[in-house]
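Researcher: Go.
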Amino acid sequence: MTVSQEYDIGVAGQPWGPAEKAQWLTRQQLRRSYQQQVLARLEQVAPGFARQQYAELDYRQYGASIYPLYAFSNGDNPDKPTVIVTGGVHGYETSGVQGAIRFLQTAASQYSSHFNLVVLPCISPWGYETINRWNPLALDPNRNFTADSPVAEAAAVVSYLQQLQQPILAHIDLHETTDSDNSEFRPAKAARDGEVNTNWDIPDGFYLVGDSAKPVADFQQAINQAVSQVTQIAPADSNGCLIGEPISQPGVVNYPKKALGLCGGITDARYVTTTEVYPDSPNASPEQCIEAQVVAIVAALDYLKANGH
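Model: Structure:
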């Protein structure tokens, strides 16, 4: 872990105020289309999956659009366990969004008879369009999946999932770890909070983040084993860590998800995992990253079926 250079907004050691956040916002540009790359592709999902708009974000005041937010599900049969899949909590993590879409278009139908599947493909569309971790208020959705959340993206998901009638068996949250975590987002976070930034080595490969309150090691291992056929599993660094955390088993670290307000902590699901692929690796292509996300979802569902769920 190394100390990075200072960020060029604000004064070192002083948290940002409204002026600094406004300065940051002026730098954010629309760089791709939620309509074309997400919504248009979601017109072609597997038969039997219904689209439901669970919220809308009006970001015209930030020079953007009105973003409808959608969930896709195949029903709420009380005789089937319910599994949640979320993508695009951080909009810049492309394969999380595209992996959720790909799953809906391909493998999802194979599991409709066994599970109630609920897929939220792109939780942060403004982040997707600006290739950003934060929302326009310089807030990270993935520390704010809590009651009375100040982040509209997170609050909408919390409200929607609370309305589901069935208990949740599993939640698979699709993410990436990128070089821009160290070059942009961690330095920006430290500057925003008036702290000193430290960077970790970006893991070269796929890894998982389990929940320290319910690590379900066999579940994580089954996912990593399947994904290893598509892309490499990230080795631990010289300190036995991934992203600054000690590994609990090869390719897995654990966080207290509910306490940290992470997306994976929204429900009381017994089986929880967050996928992390590394799209900037010389050993992985964008297509491999998308495929790895789909394989991870499928492996999780196969594990649940094989273990009597």
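Model: The chain has a mean pLDDT of 96.
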